[in-house]
Write a structure and sequence with these properties.
There is one protein chain. The protein contains 13 helices and two strands, in the order ααααααββααααααα. By secondary structure, it is mainly alpha-helical. It has a two-stranded antiparallel ribbon. A hairpin with a 2-residue loop joins strand 1 (116-121) and strand 2. Helix 1 (2-26) crosses helix 11, helix 4 (67-88) runs antiparallel to helix 8 and helix 5 crosses helix 8 (160-188).
Length: 322
Amino acid sequence: MRPIILGICAAFFFAFTFILNRSMELAGGSWIWSASLRYFFMIPFLFIIVAARKNVTPLVKAMKQHPATWILWSFIGFGLFYAPLSFAAAYGRGWLIAGTWQVTIISGSLLAPLFYESVPTKNGFRKIRGKIPLRGLLFSMLILLGVLLLQLEQAKQLSIKYALLSVFPVLLASFAYPLGNRKMMQLCKGKLDVYQRVLGMTLASIPFWLLLSFYGVVTVGFPSGNQIFQSLLVAITSGVIATVLFFQATELVKDNMQQLAAVEATQSIEILFTLAGEMLVLHAPFPTTFSWVGISLVIIGMMLHSYVSRVKKLTFRRHLDL
């Protein structure tokens, strides 16, 4: 149950991304700086945490062993995740971006065959190729249905152009984030803790953010003071707190694709937190009765996803006791 709770807490802090990114766009800020500034600001906070735990040296050694691999999966897990999300904020409201992002629930499940998971036996554990958790995927579809209902009325007000420009980048991000995260967990093999891994991936993604920043200076100029401040808030809430919480949750269940999919499904709660945040900060309208039906489906899907995950874990333990 702990990984699920951590996932929900991460979803709360991740919601700041959608709210503040939309706020920056409405204030005239560029998505380029919304994306790159977050990762620049994350470095000192994460470095202080890792240094305080005296874990900088092991991280440096690990990154030196596979520098190209770190750069590749960090670019995918962080670069192809956050740049498209920030771009989408320029064309869609926070609730639409957060809602579309829930496709990651299914995306994460579909990635299972690319990885191996540990299966308990009487003689220990053995590795087998992951399978798409069909039952969990069914509950993921229920969550996604709830999200679609939640957005249906507002989505009718968008033009096709704006809908596509806010949807397709998020679809790309929904696959990139869990893929990069899982590949880095596979590479680290439990030798690095969550803080080290997040700092390492942030540092390894810096070449991409530098290139994007250079493009930003040439095309839109430097960011305003307001955008710098809001990007700092995103870096702390979403970049540091939420990312560490989510990575910690996935680390706890990294060898079980069913439970891993359940943890990733907790991110569906982001849509609820984002709706509340937009109502308070950006004065978004109160959800209709139809939208509350969608919210109910999201909550029910979350509970069922968590239940199935726990049942499977208990079944494994009973099997080992036989």
